[in-house]
Amino acid sequence: MDYLSGWCKSVRRLEGMTAIVTGSNTGIGRETALDLYLRGCRVIMACRDTNKANVAKSEIESSHESTEGKGSLIVRKLDISSLSSVREFASLMLTEEATIEILVNNAGVMMAPRGITEDGFETHMATNHFGHALLTLLLLPMLTNCNHARVVFVSSMVHERAELDFGDINFETTTYDPLMAYCRSKVANILFARVLSQKLRDHNITNVSTYSLHPGVISTEIGRHFSDTFFHGTTWVFNNVLSWFCKSPRCGAQTTVYCAVDEQCANQSGLYYSDCAVAASSKYSQNYAYAEELWTVTLAALKLREDTLFGDVAPQK
User: Fold this and answer.
1) Which of 23, 75, 216, 286 has minimal CB crowding within 10 Å?
2) Global pTM?
3) CATH number of the CATH domain containing 214
């Protein structure tokens, strides 16, 4: 599938810049971190399992030991499904870093068994939406403190199957459906990228752009829960049979990289991309009223106030 897909053609260098890539120890997150690293960027690999992240870091560094112009890789602990972990990570970043030019919200879960996180959120919504929303909002002071920053949300084309039930965001009154839970979290990514773009401009912040995207159907570890939610052996089928019809992780990372670095989309914000080009998301996700409602629900869930978000200091806990 790789030869049929869009590829980022930008040769832009990123010396002097810092990027955060969540879930970057494997799959398209790792490929994204690798691409930015080879462009000279300082890449923070924000991962739940730091042991796996350090292995990935060592493998990347040893594979490119003689490569000129590479940047650096730093592993930091982040469990994006835990709001306390997100806050701890963001606090560390605010202490260690002056600016963040690129934030790639990549980590995620797909069709996991029903679960409720320590914060009381359904697992998909907690991991794929709430955690990344909080991370982005907490890091706004660093994102706005540079010439231009980009915030990238990795969504999926399956968002087209879903609409958000704001009255039952955690599947408390409706029957749990792992596919629908995943789809809802992915439409939330698109709506949040859209509303955040508008909110930034409402507060006269024009040096931060937001993007959401469909990376393609990728052969990665994200299918690890399939055998638990469908039937025994589904994960094996995905990894060994359906993978022949999937993009490679490197190819799947191309639209993420495009949104993070390419000059062609530098002045765009709040849009949705596929195969390194602007694409049409679902009609539901294009309705700004739903984006505003998600914004309200998200801030309430995260216990944040809009009037504290867009100043010179980080939002308070």
Assistant:
1) 286
2) 0.91
3) 3.40.50.720
